[in-house]
Amino acid sequence: MALDRKTTPNDLNAFWMPFTANRQFKKNPRMFVGAKDMHYTTADGRQVLDGTAGLWCCNAGHCRPKITEAIARQAAELDYAPAFQMGHPAAFELANRLIEIAPKGIEHVFYTNSGSESVETALKLAIAYHRARGEGARTRLIGRERGYHGVNFGGISVGGIVTNRKVFGSLLTGVDHMPHTHLPALNAFTKGQPEHGANLADELERIVTLHGAETIAAVIVEPMAGSTGVLLPPKGYLERLRAITKKHGILLIFDEVITGFGRLGSAFASQHYDVLPDMMTTAKGLTNGVIPMGAVLTTAEIHDAFMTGPENMIELFHGYTYSGNPIASAAGIATLEVYKEEGLFARAAEMAPYWQEAIHSLRGLPHVIDIRNEGLIGAVELQGIDGAPTKRAFEAFLRAYEKGILIRTTGDIIAMSPPLIISKAEIDTLIGTLANVLKTLP
Asked: Could you report the per-residue pLDDT of 203-216, keeping only the tens digit for each?
């Protein structure tokens, strides 16, 4: 009998899987072979409800015809074009459409290939911007504890997830961190933004006093921290952070790789929270996760600082082979059209109250010590097992998969962020199945 390579690879050894317990996985593989709308299809023919939009990225659901057809057309017409000293129409069209939905004041787009590269680009732009303005001493970068900004050296340097940092050496110099905003003793089981913790933004003033404002280039935060377990900004926190950075001439970068493209009910979290940063990093939902692509969105002030000197000279010595790739650009345009035609951002806002009540219905189940939510994102924090961190949540992940739902875990936190097309009935299935899983955990 011939081996079906689509569903049963002949050897799992060669692929070193990212962020995966490789040995555990390869003993009992979990293989997806198809996807449509809200569901994955497994190698053994089961349907699995996607409670995580892939990796926070498939906001419009899976295998949407408008997007897949746009990719096929573009691949047949223009497969690749260099972005250095050359262009193609789709990259410019996508940039224009991004600016149309971006917060007022954001005017330019620099393409990358991922959230990690978007972060690296934003950090480089921040330092180079100050140098272009004659403030070359501003090289220090400030992140936040438990922050996630991708996996490149800059991203893990400003990031604050310990396991992502500790085995990779000393990282970038000149980096400091503000405290995270997770205050379970004060804010447990909050619905939406918590009441307590805005004062944590004032820690930036302490860091400024320590290092001197004249040495600090930028502060980077996720408006709502996703990968660390859904940590919400306390009421007034982001506003205070914006005021402090403005006061000291420090750039504020919002990492919107997760929160961008409707996740909180607005195109971007900066609109949801009504706080305008100087730069926004994006990826994931930009192309619905179908083709790798990222983008840094900036104000005119950032862009224009580089537009000096002779016109024939390169203004910024930075970019990627695949910046503005034609096929990715086509995917991005089609994705934005799907969002608009189906009103998915507004739909997320409309579904958020139902989602909120559903996820908070898990309160009181075994081991549940906190629940948090905003837009169509939610987290269920479990009491860890003494001496075995992450084990209980990982067991929940495995049991959930067997029962037909896909969830994510980070530490002992279950995180969910379903596609924005999810129905109330599918929310009931997702949360109801998770409730049954929680009831069976040791």
From this structure: 999 999 999 999 99
